[in-house]
Design brief:
Blueprint: E1 8-12, H1 17-28, E2 32-37, H2 45-53, E3 58-62, H3 68-82, E4 87-90, H4 105-133, E5 136-141, H5 145-148, H6 154-174, E6 179-184, H7 192-195, H8 199-208, H9 221-228, E7 239-240
Helix pairs in contact: 1-2, 1-9, 3-4, 4-6
Length: 249
């Protein structure tokens, strides 16, 4: 028996990185997966194949989480296939770098729209059917930069701080109605997103980390499984931080 047997999970941004890892980890625990990603289905082939190899259902829906009509279409497809969604992981996100003084307004809007508006839209569209049943889990992927900030990433840090605040507010609204809402704020994790960073940035960041190395996706996914399962039944509005000591509270 897996910890998520019979559950239906939507994971946004699941074609790669942390989202991909969470989707596979959930499937390993018995969940059927809806992969919602703006990438093509071909780009998501690896995660879809991995989920199916574990004997679980895998539905791909190309989704722009910043666009309301796209999100509504994704939710409709998920409900049409599975009848319900038990777990929502708001993982889709983008990252760019720019000093505030030079930042194009379009960059600010794009990052905030995907990272924060996207989290709201997916939640808004799927939470109703959770509340009707009196059960559900929502896991929002934030970032340690939403807690400590970072130079040249003011828009990203603000969007992820917003995700943390949104998580707390929503948890206060719905936890007594059976829907548990929490966040995960990873530190720097070896993903395609991190691969785009310069060697100078990587060296400086490694020097800051108490653990002295970047994390792996497999060091984040157990937290998601815990929050999605019965093991996370007393976690409400929390932000859990697999971050190598970059944040200490």
């Amino acid at each position: 028996m897996g910890k998520l047997d019979g559950r239906i999970a939507v994971v946004t941004g699941a074609a790669s990185g942390i989202g991909k890892g969470i989707a596979i980890a959930f499937a390993r625990e018995g969940a059927d997966i809806v992969v919602a990603d703006r990438a093509s289905e071909d780009a998501a082939a690896e995660v879809l194949t991995a989920v199916q190899a574990l004997g679980r259902g895998a539905l791909f829906v190309q989704t722009d989480v910043s666009d309301e009509s796209s999100v509504r279409a994704m939710a409709a497809a998920a409900i049409a296939r599975y009848g319900r969604v038990d777990i929502l992981v708001n993982n889709a996100g983008i990252f760019t770098e720019s000093l505030i003084e030079d930042m194009p307004i379009e960059d600010w809007d794009r990052v905030v729209n995907v990272n924060l508006r996207g989290t709201f839209l997916c939640t808004r569209v799927l939470i109703g059917q959770m509340l009707e049943r009196g059960e559900g889990r929502i896991i929002n992927i934030a970032s340690q930069l939403g807690q400590i900030g970072g130079g040249a990433v003011g828009h990203y840090s603000a969007s992820k701080a917003g995700v943390i605040g949104f998580t707390k507010s929503l948890a206060r609204e719905v936890s007594r109605r059976g829907v548990l809402v929490n966040a995960i704020a990873p530190g720097p994790i070896e993903t395609p997103l991190l691969d785009s960073e310069t060697e100078e940035w990587r060296s400086a960041k490694l020097a800051e980390l108490p653990i002295g190395r970047f994390g792996t996706v497999d060091e984040v996914t157990p937290t998601a499984v815990m929050l999605a399962s019965a093991d996370g039944s007393y976690y409400v509005g929390q932000t859990l931080g697999p971050n190598g000591g970059d944040v200490m509270l």
